[in-house]
UniProtKB/TrEMBL annotation:
Keywords: ATP-binding, Cell membrane, Ion transport, Iron, Iron transport, Membrane, Nucleotide-binding, Transport. This is ABC transporter ATP-binding protein. It comes from Halobacillus salinus. Residues 4-240 form the ABC transporter domain. GO terms for molecular function: ATP binding; ATP hydrolysis activity.
Length: 278
């Protein structure tokens, strides 16, 4: 299984530095989740790890090789990425989309083979999409579409999957469906999963390893129960909250402070109590 890491990595766009001198190692065969406030560089970091963004300095290393010096198809055979909110050409079927995942294995002398066909069918089976394989992707529900894109990445048959906010715009049911699928792929097949998530409680539930990004570098990293504290939530997200144990999973659960109906009811109760003492 391949090792993925970043050495003294600096990223940016034009003169703007987004990530500065960052060092991380992604645990092999585990689920790693990148967390942090909006605009902190999580997606930029993920894009760089997939070789979609050239570093200003430093390097991303995959299996002891600087990915900037590797052939595109060689990288694609080791690592697959699902970008945020991918768009599908109109009318493309699920099976046609999933077949796109086999492009690293095609060439002038390498035509479509039984191995390619088997990889596509296995990806459809793993994502429960066999019955929908002839449906147009744009006719599916949000959760089904996301599963189709994940199936395409699975067809690449890589050890490592990178996913940028895979639950964006999905309702709670479909969020859990997608995260359960990724969890099963990790548990059953040992795939290394790296993803960006905004929901801290779901990140804690599914991640083996969290990387919190703040001020252009890593603020903290480790197991969710080691990383997620009231202090971190205040410094990384500028949010006051209580951190308790999830009653179902035993993982950290953040309860943000703020206005809401409970505080209104509390104020009303206090007002009634004050009137009764007069």
């Amino acid at each position: 299984m391949d090792t993925l890491l970043a050495n003294d990595l600096t990223l940016g766009y034009g003169d703007s530095i987004i990530i500065d001198s960052l060092d991380i190692t992604i645990p092999k065969g585990k689920v790693t989740v990148l967390i942090g406030g909006n605009g902190c560089g999580k997606s930029t970091l993920l894009r760089s790890m997939a070789r979609l963004l050239k570093p200003k300095s430093g390097e991303v290393v995959l299996d002891s090789q600087d990915i900037s010096k590797m052939k595109t198809k060689d990288v694609a055979k080791k690592m697959a990425i699902l970008p945020q909110s991918p768009t599908t050409p109109e009318g493309l079927t699920v099976q046609q989309l999933v077949k796109q995942g086999r492009y690293p294995y095609q060439g002038l002398t390498k035509r479509w083979s039984n191995e390619d066909e088997n990889a596509v069918m296995k990806a459809l089976e793993d994502t429960n999409l066999v019955e929908l394989k002839d449906r147009a992707v744009d006719s599916l529900s949000g959760g089904q579409r996301q599963r189709a894109w994940i199936a395409m990445t699975l067809a690449q048959d890589t050890d490592t999957l990178l996913l940028d906010e895979p639950t964006t715009y999905l309702d709670m049911t479909h969020q859990i469906e997608i995260l359960d699928l990724l969890f099963d792929l990790n548990q059953d097949h040992g795939r290394t999963v790296v993803m960006v998530l905004h929901d801290i409680n779901l990140a804690c539930r599914y991640a083996d390893h969290l990387i919190a990004v703040k001020d252009k570098t890593v603020y903290d990293q480790g197991k969710p129960e080691e990383v997620i504290t009231c202090d971190l939530m205040q410094h990384v997200f500028d949010m006051t909250c209580d951190v308790r144990e999830d009653p179902l999973f035993g993982t950290p659960m953040c309860i943000p402070h703020g206005k809401g109906r409970c505080l209104i009811k509390q104020a009303q109760a206090e007002a009634r109590a004050a009137q009764q003492t007069v």
